[in-house]
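User: Just a sanity check before I run the rest of the batch. Below are the structure tokens for the first item. I only need the designed sequence back.
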């Protein structure tokens, strides 16, 4: 069995390309909990206060939305992704 690597936030700090790669892996799982956790990881790696300021969302709300116990609203997800300097792009499976 492969051992899971620990999450290194420094690897993703101020690096939109790495953030996008990390989130694409999570999105490919089709698992909402994994996706929300990945966005939360990136949120914390960039600094919740910083993302709060860039997104216009309250820090406390961001912590609650991405702690893994609930699913954030789509508008919240979009605002956070834009604050992370990434965006969702659709692609066909065919």
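Assistant: Here's the designed sequence for the first item:
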């Amino acid at each position: 069995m492969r051992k899971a690597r620990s999450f290194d936030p420094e690897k993703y700090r101020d690096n939109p390309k790495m953030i996008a790669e990390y989130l694409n892996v999570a999105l490919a799982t089709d698992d909402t909990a994994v996706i929300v956790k990945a966005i939360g990881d990136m949120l914390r790696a960039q600094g919740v206060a910083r993302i709060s300021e860039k997104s216009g969302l309250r820090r406390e709300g961001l912590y609650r939305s991405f702690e893994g116990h609930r699913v954030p609203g789509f508008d919240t997800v979009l605002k956070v992704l834009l604050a992370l300097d990434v965006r969702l792009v659709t692609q066909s499976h065919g």
